[in-house]
Amino acid sequence: MPHFILAIDQGTTGSTALVMDTDGKTLGRANVEFPQHYPQPGWVEHEPDDIWNSVVSAIGKALDQASILGHQIEAIGITNQRETTVVWNRSNGMPIHRAIVWQCRRTAQRCATLKQQGNQDRVRQQTGLVIDPYFSGTKITWLLDEVAGARKQADQGQLAFGTIDSYLTYRLTGGRVHVTDVSNASRTLLMNLHDLRWDESMCELFDVPPSVLPTIVGSAERVGETHGVPGLPDGIPITGMAGDQHAALFGQQCLDVGDVKCTYGTGAFVLVNTGNRPVPSRFGLLTTVGWKIGADIVYALEGSAFIAGAAVQWLRDGLGLIRSASEIESLARKVPSSDGVVLVPALAGLGAPYWNADARGLITGITRGTTAAHLAYATLEGIAHEVSDLLEAMRDDMGKPMGRIRVDGAAAANDLLMQMQADLAGIIVERPKELETTARGAAMLAAIGLGVIDSPKKASGMFMVNRVFQVEQTKEQRDKRRNAWSQAVRRAQTT
User: Fold this and answer.
1) Greatest Cα-to-Cα distance within the chain, rounded to the nearest angstrom
2) CA–CA distance from 208 to each of 46, 111, 190 (Å)?
3) 476: which residues sit within 8 A by CB, 6+ positions away?
4) Alpha helices of 321-414 — where are they, by DSSP H?
5) Strand, coil or helix: what is 276?
6) Cβ(139)–Cβ(20) under 8 Å?
């Protein structure tokens, strides 16, 4: 008999709740959006109460859709936007400030100073990350220094920090539990990648008192029980936690060394399983924890293309070539190729393996015969090229080829893009039946933490491949397209 699991996927613009069973069936789903706050250029904030209320609302709607009562839920899994930072008062649970979102760049100067002081190599060796406002460390420092009285309160042990997994667990348990899972902890700049503990030297470097930090726990274990949650009875165990990209890696059942997934969203996030050891990158990829189940630790390499789905949005909103993002496939299919047009979607610079913030978007190869369809085709190719660059870097870092890539995210529904990805990367592309593998991964971890599934391999029953895209082009054809891309990227970095 299947068991009912509630998966909470807390994202940047909204919160999704899924009611699933351990046979892999989604019974109910609901998404609730919440406001974004931009107090200054480059600053992004969320109200923690807005996040919490969206989660509660989504849970209620998902339960109603599934025709499941709260007491029938046997476990809860949480996955979340990873680096977003909340600090709250331990005595009353009140945040001292809005949450600082992972996209926020307010600590750029602080990061620049730390890099100028020669800390980059040490930080990478200890944490697997680079010094950047993206991560939580400097966000915590900003909150403690800029909110009146916060630093003193922290030194007195009155404040608690958490990423969103931590904050939700605190709220779900009625303020009884202050934990974070190891995958989220690995995104703070404060955890030692090798012993999976808070690193005293990193806390000192970023001026974060250890007293504010949560306890680091595994990704599939019982960490607490619900208490006082609207619509849910007390006593439901929280048994699964992982950051969103890590949960997607697990949800795609990338359990063996070399297994890789890509999530196509606003950007494209590629993670590859590197096994039980952290692998340093020669190409600026991030080394991170995938998950920890019992004593078993899985590490990963992560690379991001800043612009993926956002390039399609630009065609829609910036150029007006399409009315909705879903129209790009039918427009691109009006032509058999880009006819030599190459579009480099460096609309926000280039990430790994180039790491050139000054790079600019570029379109080359235009003629009088170029149409909107050619631009649409070249845009999809540009996304697939970016992901192919990341896959090549991962292959070189690991010293072994990858035979397949599993995909998810909204843009993965685009058949043409997926075929391009297979052809340009020279790799089989597998697309699951359901593209919300982030929440599915959280549910799988929760089932393992509950004990109703006894191993990651046994969770494979909750994952189903829907379509496989085989490589249809020859190596010669692929090399010609990849060379044209490489030339265009070089030009994008010199404009």
Assistant:
1) 69
2) 22, 14, 9
3) none
4) 328-332, 372-398
5) coil
6) no
**End-to-end CA separation in angstroms for the chain:** 61
Angstrom distance (rounded) from CA 408 to CA 65? 24
- The pLDDT assigned to 275 comes to 93
| pLDDT exceeds cutoff 70 at 478 | yes
Q: What is the pLDDT of residues 188-222, one digit of tens each?
A: 999 999 999 999 999 999 999 999 999 999 999 99
For CA atoms 438, 442, 447, 453, the dihedral sign is: positive
Q: Specify the DSSP class assigned to residue 350.
A: B
- Write down the residue that tokens 């971890």 correspond to: 445
Question: Global pTM?
Answer: 0.89
Q: 309-317 and 372-398 are packed helices; what angle lies between their axes, rounded to 10 degrees?
A: 160
Helix, coil or strand: residue 213: coil
The two tokens of residue 182 are: 């190891």
The values of phi and psi at residue 220, to 5°, are: -140, 80
Contact 148, 84 (CB under 8 A): no
As given in the structure block, the two tokens for residue 445 are 């971890």
Measured at the alpha carbon of residue 342, what is the angle toward residues 339 and 346, in degrees to the nearest 5? 160
Task: Determine contact, residues 381/344, Cβ cutoff 8 Å.
Answer: no
Q: Domain 4-244, what architecture? A: 2-Layer Sandwich (3.30)
Is residue 61 exposed (0-12), middle (13-18) or buried (19+ Cβ within 10 Å)?
middle
* DSSP notation for 446-472: HHHHHTSS-STGGGGGG--EEEEE---
Mean pLDDT, the chain, rounded, equals 91
For the residues 309-320, what does the mean pLDDT come to? 87
Q: How many residues does the chain have?
A: 495
* 150 alpha-carbon distance from chain centroid: 30
343/391 Cα distance (integer angstroms): 19
Q: Residue 402 has which token pair?
A: 């990858």
Residue ranges in 399-414 assigned as alpha helix (H):
none
Name the pLDDT band for 325 (thresholds 50, 70, 90): confident
Q: What is the pLDDT of residue 461?
A: 67
258 contacts 287 by C-beta, under 8 angstroms = no
pLDDT digit string (tens) for 221-236? Answer: 999 999 999 989 999 9
Alpha carbon 145 to its chain centroid, in Å, reads 28
